Amino acid sequence: MFASPLIAAPMAGGTTTSAFALAARGAGALDFAAGGYKTAEALAEHLAPLRSEGTDFGVNLFVPRQGPLAPADAAALLRYRRELMPLAARLGASVPGLPFSPSDPRTQDFWAEKLQLLLTDPVPLVSFTFGLAPAAVVASLHRAGSRVLASVTSVAEALAAAETGVDALVVQHANAGGHSAAFLPPGHGAGESSVVQLVAAVRAAVALPLVAAGGIGDPTTAKAALAAGAVAVQLGTALLRTDESGAKALHKDALADPRYSATAITRAFTGKRARALVNDFVRDHGATAPDIYPEVHFLTGPLRAAAAAAGDAEALNLWAGTAWQKSQAGPVGAVIEGFLREL
């Protein structure tokens, strides 16, 4: 199904640049554009250099939440906004007002507009995360000529995704850096201790091709995931520090800083579970941040921007998987070629 056993993960928020994707492709990896947080116009601009090469590549989209916030959620957001005010004052940042309108296209991550773009001007592969695209959407992408992947984090999610007609699954373990792709309520999550075990469990339950993701920091783990039943492995944190990565220098430096000795899953930055290096923001707000995405993401956005401008890594979202200490600096092509030699 894939031209390469190695996939450069789509990392939204500026990390996966067009230059990063093209460099990964040039080294032999399959590249995915990160469609999250982009308007349809910005996504089209991002895709233009990738299309010009005329080879296999993919685009990842976020599946938006359906329905308005519950009254209790609105109250929780107000409480969290008040909690963030002292930090905002220290950073010289403002915290956006509430509420966010459900009609604001940002809350839907420009879903309809980006789908229309991909139906009008198709790409070879489309992947979804944060939920399942409806079967009708999957079918429409198939008619346009795209293959479709769904991101899952458990056997239950894999079975649900298979019912929508997707062509393959990205099987993400909780060791992954950044946002979890989980979409079923707590209790449906995987209990497997590694991506290798999770891939084996999903392989036993569904017949679709699998991509292993989460905590793959070295070729040994990658080979084990392939042996467990994956047809490809996806690298994210392993490529964060590379030259072409659009991650902030502050973030790249933190990944190599011995002061940061642990990661944790936290909702503090965006309201959605995500794995990051443990810093002051995680410690101060991890226990109180509400489970409300993307509204918490909007609340903390100006604070994160101000922290980056001030060089304050303690208030920045330092996404990192559990194998972050194995991430390497230098050209992304060199990292990818090193993995491919071993695979």
From TrEMBL:
Keywords in alphabetical order: Detoxification, Dioxygenase, Flavoprotein, FMN, Monooxygenase, Oxidoreductase, Signal
Annotated TM spans: none
Cofactors named for this entry: FMN
Keyword Flavoprotein: yes
GO MF annotations in UniProt: dioxygenase activity; nitronate monooxygenase activity
InterPro entries for the chain: Aldolase_TIM, NMO
Family (UniProt): Belongs to the nitronate monooxygenase family. NMO class I subfamily.
Protein name: Propionate 3-nitronate monooxygenase
Protein source organism: Arthrobacter alpinus
Phylogenetic placement of the source organism: Bacteria, Bacillati, Actinomycetota, Actinomycetes, Micrococcales
